[in-house]
Amino acid sequence: MVHRPLRHSLRPLPALHDDWLERISGTLKDPTLDRSHFCREILCEIAYPEYVVNYDTALVDPKIPLGTRLALSTLDPRHVTLEPEYYADCDDEKFQRVKPLLWLWYSFDRLPVGGQNVELGVRFRRLLAPHIFKSVGERFKAFQHVEFSYGYNIECGDDVVVHRHVLLDDRGGIKIGNKVSISDYANIYSHTHSIVDQKDVTNATTVLEDGVRITYHATVFAGVKVGLDSMVGAMAVATKDVRPHHVNVGIPAKSVRVKPNAPNTTPDRLHTSHEREHKS
Ligand SMILES: CC(C)(COP(=O)(O)OP(=O)(O)OC[C@H]1O[C@@H](n2cnc3c(N)ncnc32)[C@H](O)[C@@H]1OP(=O)(O)O)[C@@H](O)C(=O)NCCC(=O)NCCS
């Protein structure tokens, strides 16, 4: 293995980036902000700039194609429904407060200005996260196409990285510690359905402790605690708790080793596959 830290000195970007982000950050600080109007305004500027000035009249202008008027109308989050709004356990008051920012986040990711535009996207999502999550620490980093259930049920520590296309289903709550990394296409669930009656839903808080790495395409089930500094391997399904410092792989995920840097006090410490074979 070669140590390859991320590069930091890329070409400087136009000041427009900072100006736009500062405007968003400043506007979000206003506790009386009409978040739906704000979301619509920002999206209109970056998606349909020609309608910024006459947005309201354009909506009812028969000369503008119906589909265009529909698309314009959906820039306003009050004119769309999101899946969690159909859930019986959704706290409507909390959700309606975060919905405009979730809609802004998702819609930005689908425009040329957003999506794979790393620097702007990471900084933009870092501004939105504290206004959506229950709590979030320093240097939060999310790449494109991350999705949430409620958003308001996420507690997140410092230096958390969430990679592209991750699902954070926080219906029952997700607690994420410091220095946690969640890789591409991973799914973290916190609700489950009865095998008899699909409408019988159990919510359970899922916990990813400090230093956890959930690797690509892995899934963590509702209520599972992934222990300190442990790792869930690619494509694994963690149906039960993962012990601290362990590496769990497969379906259902089972421990294949303890990380070599684990403290000597780590329980069930198995060093080599030879030892594993003789213990199992
Ligand atoms: C979790 C992971 C790091 C484990 O690596 P490791 O500790 O070096 O484990 P090994 O390669 O020695 O594998 C141990 C055993 O588990 C199996 N195994 C390893 N990863 C597996 C996986 N994702 N799914 C199923 N089995 C797996 C191996 O085949 C091996 O089985 P064997 O003992 O029967 O031969 C690695 O498999 C993985 O999933 N990597 C994902 C990519 C990655 O590096 N992510 C981190 C940053 S996003």
CATH topology of the domain at 133-279: UDP N-Acetylglucosamine Acyltransferase, domain 1
Supply the helix-strand structural class.
Answer: alpha/beta
Which descriptor suits the 3D outline? Answer: globular
Q: Give the termini distance in whole angstroms.
A: 29 Å
Kindly report the average pLDDT value: 94
Number of helices: 7
- What is the C-level CATH assignment of the domain at 133-279? Mainly Beta
Number of strands: 19
- Tell me what the CATH architecture of the domain at 133-279 is: 3 Solenoid
Helix content: 25-40%
Give start-end ranges of low-pLDDT stretches.
none
Please outline the major beta sheet: 7 strands, mixed
Order of helices and strands: HHHHHHEEEEEEEEEEEEEEEEEEEH
Structural commentary:
The protein has a domain at 133-279: 3 Solenoid (UDP N-Acetylglucosamine Acyltransferase, domain 1), CATH 2.160.10. Helices cover 28% and strands 17% of the residues. Helix 2 packs parallel to helix 5 (92-109). A hairpin with a 4-residue loop joins strand 18 and strand 19. The chain has 280 residues and is α/β, with parallel strands linked by helices. The chain is globular, with a radius of gyration of 22 Å. The protein has helices at 16-28, 35-47, 55-59, 66-73, 92-109, 118-132, 273-279, and strands at residues 135-136, 141-142, 147-148, 154-156, 161-162, 167-168, 174-176, 181-182, 187-188, 191-193, 201-203, 206-208, 213-214, 219-220, 225-226, 231-232, 237-238, 246-249, 254-258. A seven-stranded mixed sheet has the order 2-5-8-13-16-18-19. The chain is built from seven helices and 19 strands. The site of coenzyme A has 15 residues, from strand 18 and strand 19.
